[in-house]
Amino acid sequence: MIRLYFILLFVLALPVRLCSQQQDSISLAAPFDFPLLLSGNFGELRSNHFHAGLDFKTEGVVGKPIRVPADGYISRASVAAGGYGRALYVTHDNGYITVYGHLEAFPDSVAARVRARQYAEEAFAVDINFEPYEFPVKRGETLALAGNTGYSFGPHLHFEVRAAGGKEMINPIRFYHKQLRDTRPPRAHSVALAPYPCGGVINGKHSRLMRKFSGNHLRDTIRAWGTIGLSIKANDYMDNTHNTYGVYSIEVFVDDSLRFASKMDGYARSETRLINAWVDYDRYSKRGEWYQNTFIHENNPLRILGADGNRGWLTIDGERPYNVEFRLADYHGNMSRYKMTILGVRDTIPTSIEPDAHYLYWFLNNEFSYPGMRLSVPRGELFENAILAVVEDSAARGVSRRYSIGSRVYPMRSGARISLQVLDTLNNIPHEKYYVRRVTQKGSSNVGAEYYDGWVSANISQTGCYDLAIDTFAPTLRPIDERRWGRRGVITFAMGDKGRGIKSFKGLIDGAFVLFEYSSKSGRLTCNMRREKIKRGVHTLHLTVTDNAGNVTVVEKKIRY
Fold first, then answer.
1. What topology is assigned to 24-179 in CATH?
2. CATH of domain 476-560
3. Domain 358-470 adopts which CATH fold?
């Protein structure tokens, strides 16, 4: 039955598998002329998304020429302060789309079009689509220069392969595995066991249990009864690098019977947020640790996962040992095996965990209210049924009460709706200054705001601790090394905002728009006067920054260039 279930499940995943078969007959040229090394692989676990491509090392420098892997045309160019920074998209004659992120420079002809759009829109961030006849490219020619722009913390090329008009993300390693040396298998660090809600106990308790592997075994024998799920913390490794990577394939056997399997060949772009259902999200949210579940939540349709008829959950209903084996493999076939024993010991399973909690079903519309707070979780937003208790922090001081929703953090598929009541309307402060914020041990962050009749609402992507705040702080602009602006020809400011974040910025020199570039990772706002063709002499700089609460900072000063 288990084998039949896997056959049916993988038939449902035909879009990805058919793409794999098609690609076997297609080759892509290497993006660089030097030996290939990776700093990141496809499908690695990232915050709210899978890593969508391969990160190729560029020998520690920017400016390396990138080669076109196959004939086609440049179909899109984008510029952003974070994300991919400068990025190009190439649509190929073979039906695939390749993506190149964190670029140092575009081809001159593309750069001219991008610059023209930036000046037309008077904005740094732009996104442009091109027609097939505008920028054709040939296999092997230079496409662009690799860099370190956007949310990149070291020179490298982020490279993607997409299919089905860009909707399917394909693992590019199938094209380059022969050029990447890998003799090192994945390695597991620890395992976590979780009881199904009101369905199981582990070592006599209805709570999670973490244990580290000793070599390839778990020395402890775990006692359990009822339904439990296993999660594993593991990484992959490659030759000639010190980087860690995501694990390509995970299989779980119980008493030599296959119960769960995953294989990172590809996924739909629309599935990327399902990563939050595949991992122990609560653990990641609170500790920053990635544990991959080897069971499948009720509302997790991620196609790279397969399981038995119990969705990978283990039913411990016999007073005997259950022998568990994890098999971890990389794309090159290197495999490691880890074993543990779960001893079935009859025990009492609790029927209630938090008596005053709300029980939310993933397949229903869920709405509940609390004094000063309303929460609406639409059908399908939860990945599993959730048990949520609401606790008010009476010691917190602000414009609303502070609420902790659930002791465990549950992620949402796209978003739930929270509304908080303003305790003191503070009539002298405009309503747009209010915003909902999420509060953690590390600080707070804006999640949005929509004011109506004394309530402020926002979409939230997870449960947790929320309250209201007021943003009356103007953005900050601090000149960096101002005395060298004229000699270097570069104007630099440190830009930041304490509340709702920067909405826009605009620079003028002598009353005319001039392009300022912004890096979200460094918080630096810069204008290269030489590149912007500013003439030598004394000029008037006028720089305006606006945040999402409508607060404005203006800097005006004379500069000598």
1. Glucose Permease (Domain IIA) (2.70.70)
2. 2.60.40.1220
3. Chondroitinase Ac; Chain A, domain 3 (2.60.220)
The token pair that represents 450 in the structure block: 């929509």
Work out whether strand 72-79 and strand 65-67 pair parallel, antiparallel, or are unpaired.
unpaired
Q: How far apart are the first and last CA of the chain?
A: 77
- Write the single-letter amino acid at 48: N
Count Cβ atoms below 10 Å from residue 29 Cβ, excluding itself: 14
DSSP state at residue 351:
S
CA–CA dist 388, 460 (Å, integer): 15
Residue ranges of the domains in the chain? 24-179, 187-344, 358-470, 476-560
* Amino acid of residue 356: D
Q: How confident is the model at residue 287 (pLDDT cuts 50, 70, 90)?
A: very high
Phi and psi, residue 287, nearest 5°: -120, -10
Is 476-560 the same fold as 24-179?
A: no
Kindly tell me the burial class for residue 359, based on how many C-beta atoms sit within 10 Å of its own C-beta (0-12, 13-18, 19 or more): middle
- Which positions ≥6 away from 182 have C-beta within 8 Å? 238, 239, 330, 331, 332, 334
Q: In what order do the strands lie in the sheet with 103-105?
A: 65-67, 142-146, 103-105
Question: Which pLDDT tens digit goes with each residue over 147-200?
Answer: 999 999 999 999 999 999 999 999 999 999 999 999 999 999 999 999 998 899
Q: Are 159 and 100 in contact (CB under 8 A)?
A: yes
CB atoms within 10 A of CB 168: 21
- Two tokens at 453? 């009749």
Q: Could you tell me if 130 and 180 are in contact, meaning their C-beta atoms sit under 8 angstroms apart? A: no
Q: Name, of 21-25, 66-70, 348-352, the range with top average pLDDT.
A: 66-70
Evaluate whether 305 touches 482 at the Cβ level (below 8 Å): no
Amino acid at position 527, single letter: C
Each residue of 46-79: b (16+ CB within 10 Å) or e? eeeebbbbbbbbbeeebebebbbbbebbbbbbbb
pLDDT per position as a tens digit, 211-236: 999 999 998 889 999 999 999 999 99
Alpha-helical runs (H) found in 354-426 = none
